[in-house]
Amino acid sequence: MAKLEEIETEEHQKAMIISKRKRIKKKYSIIIPTYNERLNIGLVIYLVFKHLQDIDFEVVIVDDGSPDGTQDIIKQLQNVYGDDLILLRARPKKLGLGTAYYDGLKHASGDFIIIMDADLSHHPKYLPNFIRKQMETGASIVTGTRYVRNGGIHGWNLVRKLTSRGANVLAQTLLWPAVSDLTGSFRLYERTAFEDVVSSCVSKGYVFQMEMIVRASRKGYHIEEVPITFVDRVYGSSKLGGSEIVEYLKGLFYLLFTT
Amino acid sequence: MVEKRTERRGEDRRKKVSVDVNRRCKKDRSNSLKVIVVPTMKHILKIMALVVVVAGLWISLLQTSVVPHSYTWLLPVYLIISLGCYGLLMVGIGLMLFPTCPQEAVLLQKDIVEAKEFLTSRGVDAGS
C-alpha cells in the first residue's frame, strides 16, 4: 500500500512540474508583411521552422493583395506546416506597413511579437539569439543591429554605404536614440510594449521603424541589441533614390520635434 | 491622498501619478479617482536647453572680456564648423570600419538550395 501512495505522489509531482513549465513557456508570434514575395516567402518559412525547433511560435503573414500569387504559395505552405502555425491575413491592397503590423497583431496570440522582412535580407537563424537575449536580460524590446562588429551588410556599393552612414550619424546627433540601428526592422517586442508603441506611431515605410524605436526609447522601455547580418535582396530589387532621402529627412525632423 | 510612482514596465518612469480615492467625501458620494500625470520633457526642449546654456556661456564671455572680443564674436562659427568636422569624421570612420559579411551571402545561397529541395519535395511551388 505504501508503495502505491509513493507512486501516486510522484506522478502528481511530475504533473505539477509539467503544468508549471507550460505556464512559464512563452509563445512567439512572427509577423511578416509581404507584397510580391512569391519567390522568397517559402524559403523564409522553411528557415524559420528549421531554426525554431523547441519554441512555441506562430507565423502571421500579412499580404497586401500581391498580384504575383504570393497567397497561393502561402496556402501551399499551410498544407505542409499546418494552418495553426501559419496564419494568413490577406488585405485587399497596399495599405501601409504600420497598419500591416496592427492587423497582424490582432490575429497574433503570442506573448512576444517578432517582426521581420520577407525578402531574405533578415536571416531566421538569428531568431534564437533574439529570444535568448530577451530571456537573459528581461528586455521589453530586442532590436537587431547591422552596424556593429559581429553584424554586417552585404550587397551595398560605396554610395549606398555612404548614405547609410551619413543618415545614421545625423540621426544619432539629432535624436540621441538608445540604439545603433534606427531603420532596422528585425525586432522582438513584448506584446504589451508593441501594442503601446504601435498605436502612437503615424509614419509610413521605414520611417515607421524609426518612429517605433524612438518612441519606445522615450517611453523608457528596456531595449537591447543583437548583431545581425543583412544580405541585400537576393531576388527582386531594392531602390534608394532622391525621394527616399527626402522622406528620411522629413521623418527625422518630424521625430525631432514630436518625440 | 496616495502618491505613488508607477513601477509598471512601459509606463514612463518619470511620471508621477497622484491617486485620490475619495471614499468618505460628504459632498460627492461616488468613488472618484483623480489622476494627475506629469509629462516628460520633449527631446527638442532638451536640445534647446543645451543651446541656451551654450549661448549663455558665450554672452558671459562677451561681457567679462576674458578672451579678446574679436575671437569671442567668432566662437559660434568655430563651434558650428567643428561640429560639422566631427560629423564628417564620424561618417568617414564609420565608412572605413563598415562591417561587411561576404561569407553570409554564400551561406544564404546554401540555405536557399536546401530550402528549395525541401519545398519541392513537399509540393510547394518554389521555382523562380
UniProtKB/TrEMBL annotation, chain A:
Enzyme class: transferase
General function of this protein: Transfers mannose from GDP-mannose to dolichol monophosphate to form dolichol phosphate mannose (Dol-P-Man) which is the mannosyl donor in pathways leading to N-glycosylation, glycosyl phosphatidylinositol membrane anchoring, and O-mannosylation of proteins.
Catalytic activity from the UniProt record: a di-trans,poly-cis-dolichyl phosphate + GDP-alpha-D-mannose = a di-trans,poly-cis-dolichyl beta-D-mannosyl phosphate + GDP
Compartments where located: Endoplasmic reticulum
Keyword annotations from UniProtKB, A to Z: Endoplasmic reticulum, Glycosyltransferase, Transferase
Subunit structure: Component of the dolichol-phosphate mannose (DPM) synthase complex.
Pathway: Protein modification; protein glycosylation
EC number: 2.4.1.83
Primary location group: endoplasmic reticulum
UniProt record similarity statement: Belongs to the glycosyltransferase 2 family.
GO biological process: dolichol-linked oligosaccharide biosynthetic process; GPI anchor biosynthetic process; protein O-linked glycosylation via mannose
Domain of life from the UniProt record: Eukaryota
Keyword Protein biosynthesis (UniProt): no
Upper classification of the organism: Eukaryota, Viridiplantae, Streptophyta, Embryophyta, Tracheophyta
GO molecular function, one term: dolichyl-phosphate beta-D-mannosyltransferase activity
Name of the protein in question: Dolichol-phosphate mannosyltransferase subunit 1
Any one cellular-component term (Gene Ontology): endoplasmic reticulum membrane
Domain spans labelled Glycosyltransferase 2-like: 29-197
UniProtKB/TrEMBL annotation, chain B:
Region annotated Disordered, chain positions: 1-20
GO biological process: GPI anchor biosynthetic process
Transmembrane stretches, start-end: 44-61, 73-98
Signal peptide: none
Entry GO CC: dolichol-phosphate-mannose synthase complex; endoplasmic reticulum membrane
Thylakoid found in the keyword field: no
Keyword list, A-Z: Endoplasmic reticulum, Glycosyltransferase, Membrane, Transferase, Transmembrane, Transmembrane helix
Chief site of localization: endoplasmic reticulum
Subcellular location: Endoplasmic reticulum membrane
Pathway entry: Protein modification; protein glycosylation
Single GO MF annotation: glycosyltransferase activity
Similarity-based family: Belongs to the DPM3 family.
Assembly and binders: Component of the dolichol-phosphate mannose (DPM) synthase complex.
Official protein name in the record: Dolichol-phosphate mannosyltransferase subunit 3
